[in-house]
């Protein structure tokens, strides 16, 4: 039977949904705001709405894999997927084969989204590779071959910006946009300059520090929602891969299904 694989990543701010066809290509991708109090029915309605929007049949899905860093949503989404597809989804976590050799003191503390991005980066880019995921938090991982050497975690762009606005009474809440110049001539432009150029400098600097601690990277790849405005100002050459996480989930699903088929 041709596989139609549903991939879902539940992040702190955004839930990403992707459907992969039998050819292994992404048929559609949808990004929804994560609702931390969503019920099973609410998750089901959201999924049905996405499939209707992209004119796809959710009952034709042959398998699902999901990752989540929001425990309060994980159970509801799991039940919604099982109700709509008739099959329990594979959940990233202990017991799922990834092919990664993870250097970690406590493997269960490593986010499933980081694992999925790493699996895709190993498959798609030369080694060593640095993977940057810019979401609610900014994570930077260093991979050599199939070995996950470690990562750094920093506050995300939006988190930093909101903290600045909430803590400083005279600083407004603003959108992330390209500043006209590094020199801000008003409060909004000055804040945008700080967040864009400041984060670009942080990324450039952390890439250099990771390389100093190991070896120069053959590739640096970034993903995440708050990425492009910052990447444009990085001095290092950073590739942008919007679907890195979903690609990683799809690869992990196939790896585990193929392993089960070989055993049977």
UniProtKB/TrEMBL annotation:
Q: Could you say which cofactors this protein requires? A: K(+); NH4(+)
- Which catalytic residues are annotated? 113 (proton acceptor)
Give me the reactions it catalyses: (R)-pantothenate + ATP = (R)-4'-phosphopantothenate + ADP + H(+)
Q: Which SUPFAM superfamilies match?
A: Actin-like ATPase domain
Query: Where on this chain does substrate bind?
Result: 111-114, 187
- Name the EC number(s): 2.7.1.33
Q: Where in the cell is it found?
A: Cytoplasm
**Co-factor binding details:** A monovalent cation. Ammonium or potassium.
Gene3D superfamilies associated with the record: 3.30.420.40
Keywords for the protein's UniProt record, in alphabetical order: ATP-binding, Coenzyme A biosynthesis, Cytoplasm, Kinase, Metal-binding, Nucleotide-binding, Potassium, Transferase
Which HAMAP family does this chain map to? Pantothen_kinase_3
What quaternary arrangement does the UniProt entry report? Homodimer.
**Functional description taken from the UniProt entry:** Catalyzes the phosphorylation of pantothenate (Pan), the first step in CoA biosynthesis.
Q: Which PANTHER family match?
A: TYPE III PANTOTHENATE KINASE
Family membership, please give it: Belongs to the type III pantothenate kinase family.
Full protein name? Type III pantothenate kinase
Q: Which organism is it from?
A: Intestinimonas massiliensis (ex Afouda et al. 2020)
Gene giving rise to this polypeptide: coaX
């Amino acid at each position: 039977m041709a596989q139609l694989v549903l991939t879902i990543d539940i992040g702190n701010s955004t839930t990403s949904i992707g459907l992969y066809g039998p050819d292994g290509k992404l048929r559609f991708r949808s990004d929804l705001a994560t609702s931390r109090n969503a019920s099973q029915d609410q998750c089901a309605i959201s999924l049905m709405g996405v499939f209707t929007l992209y004119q796809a049949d959710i009952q034709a899905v042959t398998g699902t894999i999901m990752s989540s860093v929001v425990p309060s949503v994980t159970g509801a989404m799991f039940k919604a997927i099982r109700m709509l597809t008739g099959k329990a989804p594979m959940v990233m976590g202990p017991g799922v084969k990834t092919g990664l050799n993870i250097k970690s003191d406590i493997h269960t503390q490593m986010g499933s989204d980081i694992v999925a991005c790493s699996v895709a980066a190993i498959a798609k880019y030369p080694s060593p590779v640095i993977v940057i995921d810019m979401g609610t938090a900014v994570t930077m991982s260093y991979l050599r071959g199939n070995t996950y050497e470690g990562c750094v975690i920093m506050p995300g762009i939006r988190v930093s910006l909101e903290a600045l606005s909430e803590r400083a009474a005279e600083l407004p809440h603003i959108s992330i946009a390209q500043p006209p110049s590094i020199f801000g001539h008003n409060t909004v432009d000055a804040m945008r300059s700080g967040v864009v150029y400041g984060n670009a400098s942080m990324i450039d600097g952390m890439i250099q520090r990771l390389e100093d601690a190991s070896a120069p990277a053959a590739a640096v790849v970034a993903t995440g929602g708050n990425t492009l405005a910052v990447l444009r100002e990085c001095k290092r050459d950073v590739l942008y891969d919007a679907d890195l996480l979903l690609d990683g989930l799809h690869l992990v699903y196939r790896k585990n299904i193929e392993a089960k088929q070989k055993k049977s």
